[in-house]
């Protein structure tokens, strides 16, 4: 039902954009279409990520990635296909400035709700300490101690459905999600076993972010490995 509704909106948007060469519709109209999938819901929607409050540079990079096929999700590829670059930046800036309440941890736990204590413990160890033996840096070393992300290009990891996180690791592993080289997340995903991915996704999906969670403005130490999508010199 929701998908049908969204498809209707997208069709309306594309008719509107064919009507004239300049961006014809207002930011508000376009954002209303986005909210049919990205709005805050009481119930978890397994694969619809929260975008509000993520750093603008990260959101812009993702809109570009959907536009150029580095990420694949037909509805998203379609929504941004013909949007001019300046518009993508405007949309990214808009959502970065929005801070609606987070969904509850019950809503984002998804299939992580049935994880065992041992799985959750493994997940938390990977998040906070990584696994040096397998060259997996701690997630907090890039995503921030509070996991709220770091401006401008590293997203927060809390408030996302665990099934969405799981699916993204699948995408990195099969190369259907790519970022600018060196693609640090693709490298990290390749080093994580399927069990580790399930453990880390389950743990993350079960955490409730602070109501006032915001991306950090810098990291206390340089990134443990380089990420092409993060401006050189670290996350300034
Ligand atoms: C039909 C539902 C739907 C609509 C409408 C929709 N999205 Fe999405 N969007 C998704 C899904 C599902 C994903 C995750 C796709 C994947 O698995 O990579 C996504 C991913 C994203 C991401 C990446 C999020 C992240 O954390 O990496 C951004 C940014 C985004 N959408 C922005 C938008 C904007 C802006 C609009 C409106 C122009 C929009 N979306 C409309 C379903 C939708
Ligand atoms: C070396 C730095 C670094 C480390 C370590 C790291 N990440 Fe990331 N992560 C990034 C960057 C940069 C991005 C944005 C990639 C892009 O632009 O697509 C990202 C994106 C993500 C996303 C996408 C979020 C979304 O909304 O789609 C997830 C999920 C993620 N990382 C999970 C993890 C987990 C779990 C770990 C620990 C096992 C981890 N990351 C460790 C740098 C890192």
From TrEMBL:
Record keywords, A-Z: Heme, Iron, Metal-binding, Signal
Source domain of life: Bacteria
Pfam families: Cytochrom_C
Residues of the signal peptide: 1-21
Keyword Metal-binding among record annotations: yes
Domain Cytochrome c, residue spans: 118-208
InterPro entries: Cyt_c-like_dom (IPR009056), Cyt_c-like_dom_sf (IPR036909), Cytochrome_c4-like (IPR024167), Cytochrome_c_Oxidase_Subunit (IPR050597)
UniProt entry tagged with the keyword Signal: yes
Protein known as: Cytochrome c4
Organism placement in taxonomy: Bacteria, Pseudomonadati, Pseudomonadota, Betaproteobacteria, Burkholderiales
């Amino acid at each position: 039902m929701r998908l049908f509704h969204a498809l209707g909106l997208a069709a309306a948007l594309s008719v509107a954009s064919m009507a004239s060469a300049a961006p014809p519709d207002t930011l508000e109209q376009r954002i209303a279409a986005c909210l049919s999938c990205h709005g805050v819901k009481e119930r978890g929607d397994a694969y619809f990520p929260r975008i509000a409050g993520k750093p603008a540079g990260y959101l812009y990079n993702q809109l570009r990635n959907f536009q150029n096929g580095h990420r694949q999700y037909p509805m998203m590829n379609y929504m941004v296909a013909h949007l001019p670059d300046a518009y993508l930046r405007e949309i990214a800036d808009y959502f970065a400035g929005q801070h609606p309440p987070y969904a509850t941890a019950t809503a984002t736990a998804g299939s992580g709700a049935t994880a065992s204590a041992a799985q959750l413990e493994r997940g938390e160890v990977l998040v906070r300490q990584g696994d040096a033996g397998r060259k997996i840096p701690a997630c907090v070393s890039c995503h921030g101690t509070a996991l709220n992300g770091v401006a401008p290009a590293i997203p927060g990891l809390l408030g996302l459905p665990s099934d969405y996180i799981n699916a993204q690791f699948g995408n990195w592993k099969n190369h259907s999600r790519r970022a600018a080289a060196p693609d640090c997340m693709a490298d990290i995903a390749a080093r994580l076993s399927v069990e580790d991915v399930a453990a880390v996704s389950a743990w993350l999906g079960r955490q409730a972010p602070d109501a006032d969670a915001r991306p950090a403005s810098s990291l206390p130490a340089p990134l443990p490995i380089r990420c092409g999508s993060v401006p050189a010199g670290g996350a300034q």
